[in-house]
Structure formats: structure tokens, C-alpha cells
Structure prediction request, 330 residues.
Amino acid sequence: MPFRKLPGNASLIAVLTCMSVLLLTRLSSTSLAGEPAQPAGFKHAGIVKAWDQYKDRLTFGKGQTLALVDDGCTLSKPEWSMSDGDQPKVLVTYDSVDGDDDPKHEGRGYHGSTIGIPSSLNFGGKWGVAYNNQIAVIRALECCHCKVSDGVTVAAGLQWIIDHHRKYRITTVNLAPVDDKAHDTPVATAIDEKLAQLRELGVWVSAPAGNHNYTNGISWPACQPNCFAIGAVHQNNDVVYLDRHAKVDLVVPAAATSSSNAIACGAAIVLREAIETAHYDWKQDGANLPDAILSLMQKTGVKVDDKATNQSFQRLDLAAALAHVFAEAR
Prediction:
């Protein structure tokens, strides 16, 4: 249909109006997506692609709570005291060192105020992986750079999760401390029984491998049975770095393994939701749900060879894992 010329400036006005409508439509559609908390790493790990491809099928964490087991948190920080979502970001708090519900930093604590960002942020237009989840903040030791002897209060924090996981819908635990040692075998501590119970309950627990570029071992508690050990590749390429060993279960693009682990925790929440939404038979992948989720991450991930350890690791690709779940859905 030919364009009909309107009198005077009416043609120009009509064109400008049409352009404005198109621009506003585009802006409104793009504003629905938040900025990644860690842009390069999230893109490399298939997280940004997952947000885009599954925005109509997944809520990215709603109805699930992530327990942050670390050295406390400044709850007044805006990312925790406020949220762009429709529910408070912090659902519950506990201090297993003092036995109360005030998780504020004491002594050398600092780490727990930020480690939830890669997994859970939903503030100021920026998103963590599972941005619609809630968090349980648990202060379980004085400082994230810990000693194995801190296992007593960490175990108390894990016991609190065991006792309350159903009430607060805790599906995932970010066990954030590192003792900065190179353990090539597990170290028997009070947390071991708690980790086994959480695995039986179907709760994902993972910990960072450490950040010293060790190639002969990883940090405690990541070295323990029933705790997934998360290592790192560079944010822009598949080069394994920081602490790694045969015990490492997955590598994730990040600047530190604490962030790698936080991202893995967020991905575990999203995959759990996808499994439930798609009615995916996870029993074909593992003896329990956490094992199945890790298996999905591994078999849909990208193989990365590491010459320093003569090991191959699987790098997280969340979009690929989700594609597999939905393709195989009943």
C-alpha cells in the first residue's frame, strides 16, 4: 500500500510517532532482562542465553532458598535489605557460632556480605543466576579463610539447615569457607555426617576449591565427601586456573572459585526448577537429586583439558543443561 502524504507536517509527525512507538516497544522488552552480575563469566557459562531462552518457562529460583554458610553478612546492604523482586531477598538468618539469629560480621568476617551476589542478586537492574530465589544467611565461623577446627560451628550451621530445610524451602547450600590448604584426601571433621545427611535429603552442597593455583590438592571443606568441589576457568576462555585436583567436580568461569561456586549454586537451583517443570526423570542421571544435577552439568558441559594436572574437567554450560532437560522431558 503506497504511503499517503498528509497535509503540512503531518507526514513527519506520523513517521516520528511510529518510530517512537517502535523504540518504546524495544526498550520495554529489553528492560525485562537484568544485567548479569558478572557479564563475561555469565555469558561464557551459558547463563545469559538461559535467561533469554527460558524466560517464559522458568522463574529462575522462585520458591527455593539458598543457604549461604559463611562468616556473616551486613544485612543493611541494599542488595539484601531490598529487592527488585516481589518478595524479600533474605528469608531467614542464623548464627551457629553464637546460637542466635543475628548473622552480623564479627572479628575478621567480611566475605558473606558479597558471596550471594553471583547466585542471588536481584537489585538495581542486576541479576544473579537464580535472581528470584531467597537466601538463608548463616554465620558459621568468624572468617571465610578458616581452619579445619572451625568444623564444629560449621557442622552446627549445617545441622540447622537439616532441621529447617523443609520449613524454609532450602534446596541448595553454598558452603563458602576455604582453609587455603592443598588437601589431596578428605580431612575427617564434624561436618562429614551433616554433609551425608544433606545429600540424602536431596540438598545440593558445594564449596570453592581455593584460589592459590595449587595443582596437588584443594581447600577444605571442598575436599570432603558429599560436598561438590567447584573450580574455575577464566571468564573469557576455557583455561583452568586457581586450585584444582582430581576431586574438582565442575569448573565455572569466574575471577575466584568462591564466585565459581556461587554461580554453580545458582545453576543448581535453576536446573532443579527445570527438572520439576519438565517432569524430567532425573533418576537416570544419579542416585539422588544433587548427584543428578551435577551429572547433567557435567555431561552437557564443555570438556577442558588442564596440562598442569593432566586432568580434564567439565565447564558449566547452563543453557545446554536446560536444553537437555526440556528435550528429554516426559
Q: What stands out?
A: The chain has ten helices and 13 strands. The two ends are 48 Å apart (CA to CA).
